[in-house]
Write a structure and sequence with these properties.
This protein has helices spanning 67-70, 86-91, 184-194, 223-234, and strands at 6-11, 14-19, 22-26, 33-34, 37-39, 54-56, 79-82, 97-100, 105-108, 111-117, 134-139, 143-146, 165-169, 198-202, 207-209, 239-240, 247-250. It is an alpha/beta fold. The protein is globular.
Length: 274
């Protein structure tokens, strides 16, 4: 049975990576409201198909390791987490928990999942464990980098000899960003180190603080287009595809060539690259 290789951007840092018949879900955040954050476009139907081969957790912050979302998943699904975070998954009765540090590899079907370093806080406030934040390289017939939450770090230049796609955070959930995050400019700088064939901006356009979304504020819409603008200047050989939450992009398009990207600011409904 044919299985497409594609990236589905569910929203925030939740991405479904399908590669070589393997389905990996990153940082599942599958609710319409998380504490004081509300989803801008409501999830009206399930976004995760029945079969998942593994879940990848980048770090322990509540918008990346969300217990109610994890409770929606089958407890037999392998979960790959930063070393020290397994106790949280154990309490949820997940039966196959892989704790990893940067550089360690877990084989999932036909692909290898390699943990990478990330520059981001690993604490879970107020009383949770502390574990290093991670990114992940998914290595198969193509190599896909999921950055999690991170700031720039020089080792990006040596993460992979060949990087087919980089999933890079370009914003967050509010009008400002704290330390340890990539904004559109710094994410474009990351492209000069990573040198991927394709870049897909994530961690934008999904959640906003209650009371701030009524006017469709620019922080929900502009960051991926700002990223594309800067990327064109700093890394013109990298193809940028903007994928709105709930949409996907195939990885196996023969001769996928750079196409002109309209950098004018769009509404959420139109925020999908050609």
């Amino acid at each position: 049975m044919y299985s497409p290789s594609q990236i589905s951007y569910i929203g925030h840092a939740t991405v479904l990576i399908e590669l070589d018949g393997v389905r990996l879900l990153t940082d599942p955040l599958l609710r319409n409201q998380v504490m004081h954050l509300r989803r801008w476009r409501i999830l009206s139907r399930p976004v995760v198909q029945p079969r998942l081969d593994a879940v990848l957790i980048s770090h322990l912050h509540f918008d990346h390791l969300d217990l109610p979302s994890l409770r929606l998943l089958d407890r037999s699904i392998p979960v790959i987490v930063p070393r020290g975070a397994g106790v949280i998954l154990d309490r949820l009765n997940f039966r196959r928990i892989y704790e990893v540090s940067a550089g360690e590899v877990v084989q999932v079907g036909a692909v290898r999942v390699r943990a990478t370093i990330a520059r981001h806080s690993g604490e879970r406030h107020p009383f949770g464990p502390v574990a290093d934040a991670l990114g992940y390289l998914v290595e198969g017939s193509k190599t896909v980098y999921f950055a999690g939450d991170t700031d720039l770090f020089p080792e990006m230049a040596s993460l992979a000899d060949r990087l087919d796609a980089a999933l890079l955070p370009v914003w967050g959930w509010g009008p400002t960003l704290g330390a340890g995050h990539l904004d559109p400019w710094r994410a474009a700088q990351a492209l000069t180190l990573l040198r991927p064939a394709l870049a897909v901006p994530i961690h934008w356009g999904t959640f906003y603080p209650v009371g701030m979304g009524w006017a469709n504020p620019r922080f929900l819409q502009d960051p991926p287009y700002e990223f594309a603008h800067y990327a064109l200047r700093l890394a013109p050989d990298v193809r940028v595809r903007i994928v709105a939450p709930g949409h996907n992009i195939p990885l196996n398009i023969p001769g996928l060539a750079r196409q002109p990207l309209d950098l004018g600011y769009k509404s959420y409904a139109n925020a999908v690259a050609r």
